[in-house]
Automatic annotation (TrEMBL):
<dbReference type="Pfam" id="PF03358">
    <property type="entry name" value="FMN_red"/>
</dbReference>
<dbReference type="InterPro" id="IPR029039">
    <property type="entry name" value="Flavoprotein-like_sf"/>
</dbReference>
<protein>
    <submittedName>
        <fullName>FMN-dependent NADPH-azoreductase</fullName>
    </submittedName>
</protein>
<feature type="domain" description="NADPH-dependent FMN reductase-like">
    <location>
        <begin position="7"/>
        <end position="148"/>
    </location>
</feature>
<dbReference type="InterPro" id="IPR050712">
    <property type="entry name" value="NAD(P)H-dep_reductase"/>
</dbReference>
<dbReference type="InterPro" id="IPR005025">
    <property type="entry name" value="FMN_Rdtase-like_dom"/>
</dbReference>
């Protein structure tokens, strides 16, 4: 069953490796027949959070926020692609996520984390779990950590290690299960 799954990238650094991971997961989701818009904070150029989207009078939010809100509202699930900055969430990712709230409600999220080292960004993923739950898009139990991302994926997002496709397959199966289940429940109403 086709889903709409925005991939939200977390880094704006010039030489970021996150694009490799975002390209990989985007291709993997598209190969399953899903619609996968890429939400790239480097392209969006969002200001530092001063006012959330919902705090603007109707029709007065900046066009970039209106467009992103429309994308998020169409979503069945979200994939967050995050590096680990100082054992924490990248500031560009936090800023992108924090502009919205209700647009995430009742939809699952999944965390793809990466790093240049062996831990694959899992320390940031643990903090992301709490943040995503608070935003109303709780993360699925599994993670997809990508250690040594510069060796595991090439610049186009093609895997260079055979284990990655196996791990990603199980991870995306789990995300689809949660996304379909919550989509069905949203259709019959939500608690508020």
């Amino acid at each position: 069953m086709s889903l709409v799954v925005p991939v939200i990238l977390g880094s704006v650094r010039r030489d970021r490796n996150g694009l490799r991971a975002a390209r990989y997961v985007t291709k993997a989701l598209e190969a399953r027949g899903h619609e996968v818009p890429l939400v790239d904070p480097a392209d969006l150029g969002l200001p530092l959070l001063d006012r959330m989207y919902k705090e603007y009078p109707k029709g007065e939010a900046p066009a970039v926020l209106e467009g992103l809100a429309a994308t998020l509202r169409r979503a069945d699930a979200f994939v967050i692609v995050s590096a680990e900055y100082n054992h924490s969430i990248p500031p560009a990712l936090s800023n992108t996520l924090d502009h919205f709230l209700e647009e995430y409600f009742w939809r699952p999220s999944a965390i793809v984390c990466y790093s240049a080292g062996r831990y694959g960004g899992v320390r940031a993923a643990m903090q992301l779990r709490a943040m995503l739950a608070e935003l109303g898009t709780p993360s699925i139990p599994s993670l997809l950590p990508i250690p040594e991302v510069h060796k595991t994926l090439d610049e186009a997002g093609a895997p260079q290690q055979p284990w990655l496709d196996r791990s990603a397959g199980r991870f995306l199966d789990e995300l689809a299960w949660y996304a379909e289940a919550l989509r069905d429940r949203r259709r019959s109403g939500t608690p508020y």
